[in-house]
Design brief:
By secondary structure, this protein is mostly beta strands. It has three domains: about 280 residues, Beta Barrel (Porin); about 140 residues, no CATH class; about 270 residues, no CATH class. The chain has a 13-stranded antiparallel sheet, with no helix packed on it. A hairpin with a 2-residue loop joins strand 1 and strand 2. Helix 4 runs antiparallel to helix 5.
Amino acid sequence: MRALLHAACRCTGIAVLLWGWAQAAAYAEPARFLNDYGQVGLMQTPTARSLGQGAIGAGYSSTDPIEGYLLHVQPFEWLQGGFRFVNITNPALATDPSRDDFTDKGVDFQFRLLREGDWLPAVAIGLTDLGGNGLLASEYLVLSRRFFDLDIHFGIGWGRLGGRADVDNPLGVVDDRFETRQFNFEREAGKLSPESWFTGPAALFGGVVWTPAGGPLSLTLEIEGNDYNNERFAQNPLAPETAPDEVRFPADPEVHARVNLGMSYAVGNWGQLAASWQRGNTLGLRFTAVGNFDRMRGPEKVLRPSTPAMPSYRTQVQHGRAKALTPARVERIQRELDDQWISVYAIHAENDLHGIRRVTVWAGQQLGDSLPLLAGRIARTLIRQTGAYYDEFEVVETVGGIEATSVVIPRRAFHRSVMGPAPVEMLASSVRTEAADPAGYREATYRDLLRYPAFTYRLTPSLRSNIGGPENFAFAQLLARLTGTAQLGPRLSLSGGVAVNIADNFGSRLDRDFPSALPKVRSDVRRYLRTGKDYYLSQLEANYFFPIAPDWFGRFSAGIFEDMFGGGASEVLYRPTNGRWAVGLEVAHVWQRDFEQRFGFQDYNTTTGHLTYYHELPFENIRMVLSAGRYLARDVGVTLDFSRGFASGARFGIFASFTNVSAEEFGEGAFDKGFYMSIPFGLFSAKGGTGAAQFSFRPIQRDGGQKVVSGRSLYYSLDASHARSLQTRQADWGR
């Protein structure tokens, strides 16, 4: 009996512990912040935590002998990545004899294998320093589990994270090749070396984060797996084995402890200040800032006029007099829509063969990138002005003077779904999208309603930078950029931009000339930065858009297209109205601009062009772009681009170009690759608006695989008018 009682108590105790383990997940929220390398982690080690899809983070860290500039992005819940420039103090690695440091850059990826549940920890696998010299290269498997105010992490690492060699490589039982790790510092930076992944000795790492009461303060204890006494960046990897220690280990760091202690403080929900005591003798400092483009909405949008009260619609339709279009009524419609940042080009009314009355409005918007928002605002205005006279409203969104998409809205369905009891989702089954007829505009009763020229402009701060260069670790320039567009006619526009220097740290540097086996179409970026730093002409181009046939569009462009090139270009695009794909062909002949970036050109000129396939995949708002053709340096190849869009309108993407240029000719990096972000201007404005800021990042800028920006791309200009937004932006019908 006593044995049974003892067994029962033991089982009860185990059950209570398991219940507490499961309840811990429900009551504790782990602290999440970036580590010294831009990974979600502790100080030197990663964890299996994430900042959530759509997250973006940036920061700066300094722990002797490494200082780093960090960028973190997370396009999916299961995938996160980082882009990092580091400056390592080591005279033996310096490319400039007058310096005692070495710059390196790298890309990290982490894949979540298992989400944390009531019983199981979060599990992730990661690759570190894919795009650098391999000095910080590591692979790891890590587990994370929260327990009330404690967040516990445990992992096994290879490469740098496995430097302590605590354990034999568990993968050695699979194949003997995993037991030895090969490393060649002289290999070209940027090359992937999958044959070395998860090879060599392994080490254990981990730590615990205590966040009292979920507050802003977190205390961290970390045990790391790297061995600083054999650190690659502390050695001269080119020195022979017989060289003296002072030659082979010119920056050998002294290590007093394997345990690191840290403290971090959350600044609101966007920033983190952190200090740490690492290796028992080194102070570490870090500042990071994070945001989330999947949740970010910016300031509340103020649309003029605001949506009228619902009863006014019912009164207008049920008791108001039906009114046909007249010149005076057309003028009122145009004036009301203009007050909502909607430009009306033409209006036409007709009866079809079945006696259905339809009014068609050709219009363009400055509201944003939402077709339902444009169509819904026009439908409301037509109801206010014409009551129940017309049965259908057709909205033809016009971009650059070409009819992009036609949306046909039954008035009764719109009234029931947007202004009545029916859910707005029911409107989707009634709305029709059609290919816009290019001849329709010419037959409109009231056309050429917009007066030309029409002007728009924007004054914004801008940042130009070059990080990781051999002359200095980071160069930056703050500019005031004025851009504007004059719509000279229905299809012809003139766009220009000037930039004026506000502050920079260039000094007398950025004037060195670096060798290249290819025509120097991009690698002279430092000379452009230096020579044209005070002010420069960033753009002065004319674009002529024209319809060819339903779903076929064309463009001619000429002028100064970008910082480095100008010339002439043409493009043809086929985009099925209700399809998820499109095909375009673009050809340009361009000249390289003078370094002063005024109106002069250099002798170098070339013809470049690409056939491009676009596909909007039916999941996760992913876009695939595949292009093939001739690049600026006259090399030939293909570029593959994947990007993910978010609810805020922001987009993250990665790209890689493979051409007929060999790795030796291309130089450091082997092939062109990088990632980019597109952030809509309307996200930061209460008025909304169109256009986006573009930011791209490459581990190293070379001349192979380089495209030119040659005018306004048809696909991206027409993207906001795609019929798919009628499904993805349904809530905008009621705004």
